[in-house]
Amino acid sequence: MNDILEEQRLVNLEITKHNLQKISLINKISTIVIVLLVIINTLLSNILFMNIDGNASINIEPYIVLILFNIVIFMITDIKKISVTTNNFRGIDTFISCYVVILTFFSSLITISDQQYYNQLMIYTLILFIACSVIILRANQLFIPLFVSSVTVLIGLYLQNGNTDLFKQQLVYLLLLDFIIFFISRSFYHSFRRSVVFQIKMLKEAHNTRELTKKLREANRKLELQANIDPLTKLFNRRAYNEYLEDLEKRANHHSFLFTAIMVDVDCFKLYNDTYGHTEGDNVLANIGEQLFQISDKYGCFASRWGGEEFTLLLVNHDDQLVNEICEEIIGQIKKLKINHSTSNINPFVTVSIGASTKKICDPNEIKSCVRKADEVLYHVKENGRNYYEHRQLYYI
Questions:
Q1: How far apart are CA 53 and CA 79, in angstroms?
Q2: Does residue 217 sit within a domain?
Q3: Enclosing domain of residue 323
């Protein structure tokens, strides 16, 4: 139900926008036509051989009134340039209805005035066809101006001609004209409405498609992210680590850069699991992963779970001093956690050992060799007391 009401509201809004544009066009065209008719009729009425009886004069007042009316409409539609919105379209729709009633009424006044240079019903017919075939009108918007103008014309013609054959012919003509105008107007209305409804449905489908595509992309992004994230530590997993190394190797084919690998290992972790159980061991890895994530975010480096209780941080173009600061911060943050480790022969709390290696990369193969060197340094730290870091700068050009 709400969808139907929303669709009808959008249709009415589009019809109102269309009509406001067409009124501006009709207003300009009708003004030009009326001015030309006044000029032509004035010239013809002043030709000597057409004014012998002195009765061939033009009743110019209805024309002047219609021109003034068109000037007012021009100021509203073109000078003020009102635009249709959801807040004002009902008021503008009422303005359009009034415009059609007044326009057709003025055309009926011109029709019943004395015309001797063209068919008496020509202007009325012309304006009806233009207004009702260009402006999209609902049934009530069409019936009122047709009724008012037709009754006005019939009364005027009857007063002029009486119940003569000419009046009867004009009556038949007006009835046929009203029927044709009504049929044309309703055809235009339904055709335009179908077109707008079709466009609305197409826009909705396009919107739904965009939303669905957006959701699919978001779902794919989440799936891709989940495929690259270690579920326990929330750091990148080994797969993401391998992809990152491949990207660095491609980068090394184009230009050199400074590369650092930091390997982190939890001290005596097997003893911790044996003492506290694997669930508590997972909690330790999760807590350490959170600290490494914060540090990697702070310094802009790549952090991943290497495997088991080992982690790695990869840095590009970080100087030696900053690498040392990162290593020291890792050790300091883990100590601050104060996770009890009663069976550790290093410290009563959980600690980590770190091995770091820095090298200027000029060849893609040097990246993995730098990582291997960091792993060697980590092994050296573990063999020589643990709970500290060692950073080795390899020879680089």
A1: 46
A2: no
A3: 238-393
* 312 and 385 share one domain: yes
Please choose, from the candidates 394, 71, 10, 33, the residue with its C-alpha nearest in 3D space to the C-alpha of residue 198. 10
Query: CB count, 10 Å around CB of 200?
Result: 15
**How is residue 236 annotated by DSSP?**
B
In total, how many domains does the chain have?
A: 2
Pairing of strands 302-307, 352-361: unpaired
Instruction: Beginning with the edge strand found earlier in the chain, give each strand of the sheet holding 352-361 in spatial order.
Output: 302-307, 310-316, 257-266, 352-361, 389-393
213 inside domain:
no
pTM given for the model: 0.52
Whether 214 is covered by a domain: the verdict is no
d(CA 236, CA 246): 15
Amino acid letter, residue 147: F
Task: Report how far residue 138's alpha carbon sits from residue 132's, in angstroms, rounded to the nearest whole number.
Answer: 10
Kind and range of the H or E run holding 304 = strand 302-307
Query: What residues form DSSP beta bridges with 263?
Result: 312, 355
Cα separation, 215 vs 213, whole angstroms:
5
Strand, helix or coil for residue 344: coil
Amino acid occupying residue 265: D
pLDDT tens figures, 72-96: 888 888 787 777 777 887 888 888 8
CA-angle at 332, arms to 331 and 337, nearest 5° = 100
Give the residue from 187, 206, 225 where a domain finishes. 206
pLDDT tens column, 101-116: 888 888 888 888 765 5
